[in-house]
Design brief:
The chain is an alpha/beta fold and 556 residues long. The chain has 23 helices and 16 strands. Strands 1-8-7-3-4-5-6-2 form an eight-stranded mixed sheet. The protein has an eight-stranded parallel beta barrel with strand order 9-10-11-12-13-14-15-16, surrounded by four helices. It is globular.
Length: 556
Amino acid sequence: METTLRGVGVSHGVAIGEVRHMGTAVLEPPAKQIPADEAPREQGRARQAVEAVANDLIARGNLAGGEAQAVLEAQAMMAQDPELIADVDRRIAVGSSAERAVYDAFAAYRALLANAGEYLAGRVADLDDVRNRIVARLLGVPMPGVPDSEEPYVLIARDLAPADTALLDPTLVLGFVTEEGGPTSHSAILARALGVPAVVALPGATEIAEGTVIAVDGSTGDIFIDPSPEKRAELTEAAAVRASALAASAGPGATSDGHKVPLLANVGGPADLPAALEAGAEGVGLFRTEFLFLDSSEKAPTEEKQVAAYRQVLEAFPEGRVVVRVLDAGADKPLDFLTPADEPNPALGVRGLRILLEHPDVLRTQLRALATAAEGLPVYLEVMAPMVADRIDAKAFADACREAGLRAKFGAMVEIPSAALRARSILQEVEFLSLGTNDLAQYTFAADRQVGAVSRLQDPWQPALLDLVATSAEAARAEGKSCGVCGEAASDPLLACVLTGLGVTSLSMGAASIPYVRATLAKHTLAQCERAAAAARATDTADDARRAAQAVLSGE
């Protein structure tokens, strides 16, 4: 009998197939004492396993490229954390085996994160994955991970570690469903980059039996257990209609009555450029430059290395717009040479622009590198600062850009409610705004973007979040300046129409979402988008906002 479940759809498309479950996590090693004279050998085993796992994660990152590479390199850094390794050595010295010492050291670090207010709770899946890989290597058992199968399947897991998501084979993994996670988790972002239909935050997902046939609608978040032939046909037809609309969609982003809405790509580095160009991106709306810094966490990359990487991206969009975000470090992206080690709550501490202003040499070098990379190119370079809180922050960043001789537009990201509420003040110092809806939702609702338990508060359809978007867009319009969205909210085609109706002037997203957004915008007038936006803001819940907008745009 057909049953319907509802999670959070995070990657468009429909997948129908048999369920396969993620490999079982490594069992807890036995707590046995070892003789003192075996401690040096066990310490050596532990270090070898740590290095092997770190190297494997880096190799996987090199294969995956782009955003996935930065995520996996961050995991490798987690494996090699000096304090963790020192803790493992201490535990072995007092009698633990290598595998037990690793297990207990990671458990202590896990508890430390939870006690810090769980801002980093979203990294627990990453941490557990690193632990499992090290323990598996020490025990000599197969690594946990994606199941072996010669037939295509739908993957179900409690959560997916980036190391697994990054290398999913789309010819075998038709789609995936997780019990944990949220719409802006690493797995969701990587799923969109892969173009694999995905649903997260589905309660009871892991209880669906192996081999069960399910249908996954990554657009709506619906999961159909044992779908009837009629339901399969309905979903298949809907997918075909979407594919046809995508094939017919081309050119710049615009509403049906010609209102231009540039569609830009979010990129993590040069490896993401082919997908962006193939999708018809009109430029880059968010160039995350931290991938270079995560690759060399003990010191900042040289100016020459930065110039080479930046120029590759700038050259890919001649006469196009490229918006570069300067280094966004701190919180879940720590860097040994920059990030304070003892912050009780890194999310509310020194991160983003705050770190750069404390280390002006790092900011100055990056701005000089961007200026050099853009020399002689017809590209429209725009540079923005992360985590701007007020006009003082905006002025400090604009002054630094001018002092570095950067000929570009200077902008501010709106990720903190104060920046949205005082957007007009901030725009006295900078020339554009870019809304990072992922962090803006996180700070508006005090809801960690990586924690599935609060995923309803991370939903970009929340009316309070739409209010902040509207406030920012209205301020930009009043000042005659632009206000784009570069958070994952822009990747939802229906929400893209609402954002346009709120006054947003450009939309930036993962490359795989661009055709969907382009095709949907082209079906509606600007007036329809404005009515849908007003209807969504008049509601009190995310679900009601989505339904209200859908009703307006479908002519109900």
